[in-house]
TrEMBL record:
Keywords (A to Z) from UniProt: 2Fe-2S, Iron, Iron-sulfur, Metal-binding, NAD, Oxidoreductase
Native source species: Nostocoides japonicum T1-X7
Name of the protein described by the UniProt record: Rieske (2Fe-2S) iron-sulphur domain protein
Cofactors required: Fe cation
Record-linked InterPro entries: ARHD_Rieske_2Fe_2S, Rieske_2Fe-2S, Rieske_2Fe-2S_sf, Ring_hydroxy_dOase_asu_C_dom, Rng_hydr_dOase-A
One GO molecular-function entry: 2 iron, 2 sulfur cluster binding
Cross-referenced PROSITE patterns: RIESKE, RING_HYDROXYL_ALPHA
Keyword Iron belongs to the record: yes
UniProt domain Rieske: residue ranges: 14-120
Coiled coil (residue ranges): none
Keyword check for Metal-binding: yes
Database matches in SUPFAM superfamilies: Bet v1-like (SSF55961), ISP domain (SSF50022)
Record-linked Pfam families: Rieske, Ring_hydroxyl_A
Length: 400
């Protein structure tokens, strides 16, 4: 199943891998490992974003070992074949007469940037719906100007659980009240928008939530952000969801009690009380955009029971560490939340591996978990079913 997931899910869908803020200058690069495939994401000399397979076209050596860095050109350490940042081959010592360098550039990988978020697909025939999804999400994301932010901090957390458990845990907040006291200090305590589910004790808080939501909608309208959520998590290959939610307490950011964590607002946001723009992508990423910073997450499988979760905190390019923000305070809530989620995932991995495990029913608020599982099953159905997927993914069936 792990090999199948690498082939069908991670080998054929758009994967969030990095932000443009991580490669701000020509020659800046990051490497991404997906199974045995290594990809270089680089800002090329024309200041565009390229994605290249990290494999020399001569004898197959890995070209780059570092997770990130900056180069003038890529030089293979084995025989010094040299490539420009767009992947074109410019030097190959002792080449045979008539050798055509133009035919031996680094293999390119399909890459798209959505408002500063960089996605790659390892298939030569990626899902065709990405542009449509980008058209929906661009107005939500554009005011934050993510490509122009800077990286304030980045962490990698290895979770001892299957990648699907990591994503299922992310796709619900039923566990949040008891499991994430730091995070929930900035959120209103509601898992439902049905007024009939609100108890008399919570009615005043609910009224405050409605008022904050109305103000957020008005503030978003001044920045050209569409009102209302969009949710297509299980009905297309590039499943997504976007919601713009008010924050509780001070209502400003992910500091304890909704407090701000940076003195500089980001992008075109001029209202410090600007809520949480939350975005999910199938199969491996989620994002939170706030008035004073943004947090982006990606999960990539490392083994059947190991998943690497990378978290990146972005702040305004002119924010000064130690003056406008403090890294410990900036990262406090999500560092704690990530560690708590790691514990939940690892406990669940041990539990579902127990021969005595039998699945239980979903709670009514676990609809996004169900959507993730439905999306996953549909992707496998597309792979094994033959013919062209009516949602736009071309199956590549194989005898098994």
């Amino acid at each position: 199943m792990y090999a199948l997931d690498l082939e069908v899910i991670f080998g054929r869908h758009w994967l969030f891998c990095a932000t443009e803020a991580e490669i701000p200058e020509p020659g800046d690069f990051v490497t991404v490992e997906v199974g045995s495939t290594s990809v270089i994401i680089v800002r090329d000399d024309d200041e565009g974003v390229s994605a290249l397979l990290n494999v020399c076209r001569h004898r197959g050596s890995r070209i780059v070992d570092d997770p990130c860095g900056a180069v003038g050109n890529f030089v293979c350490p084995y025989h010094q074949w040299t490539y420009r940042t767009d992947g074109s081959l410019i030097f190959a010592e002792s080449s045979q007469p008539g050798f055509d360098r133009s035919a031996f550039g680094l293999r390119r990988v399909p890459v798209r940037s959505l408002a500063g978020l960089v996605f790659v697909c390892l298939s030569d025939e990626p899902p065709v719906d990405f542009d449509e999804v980008a058209g929906v999400l661009e107005p939500y994301l554009a005011p934050y100007r993510l490509a122009g932010l800077k990286v304030a901090h980045q962490t990698d957390l290895m979770e001892a659980g299957n990648w699907k458990l990591v994503m299922e845990n992310n796709r619900e907040c039923l566990h949040c009240d008891a499991g994430h006291p730091e995070l929930t200090s900035a959120y209103f305590p509601f898992l439902t928008s049905n007024p009939e589910d609100i108890t008399p004790r919570l009615r005043p808080v609910y009224e405050e939530y409605l008022g904050a939501g109305a103000k957020l909608t008005e503030a978003g309208a001044t920045r050209g952000i569409p009102s209302g959520a969009r949710r297509e998590l299980d009905s297309r290959p590039t499943g997504y969801q976007v919601t713009h939610m008010p924050l509780a307490g001070k209502g400003r950011s992910f500091g304890m009690g909704g407090a701000p964590v940076s003195a500089k607002l980001i992008g075109d946001v001029h209202d410090a009380v600007f809520g949480d723009m939350s975005v999910h992508f199938q199969p491996n990423s989620w994002f939170h955009l706030l008035s004073d910073h943004a947090i982006v997450f990606r999960a990539l499988p490392v083994a059947p029971d190991r998943t690497l979760v990378r978290t990146t905190w972005l702040v305004s390019a002119d924010a000064v560490e130690g003056v406008d923000y403090d890294v410990d305070r900036l990262t406090e809530v999500w560092t704690a939340t990530n560690d708590e989620d790691r514990g939940f995932v690892e406990r669940q991995q041990r539990g579902v591996s127990d021969p005595g495990y039998l699945p239980g029913p979903y709670a009514t608020v676990e609809f996004d978990v169900e959507a993730f599982v439905t999306w996953y099953i549909r992707r496998l159905e597309s792979h094994f079913g033959g013919g062209r997927d009516h949602l736009g993914l071309v199956p590549q069936t194989a005898a098994r």
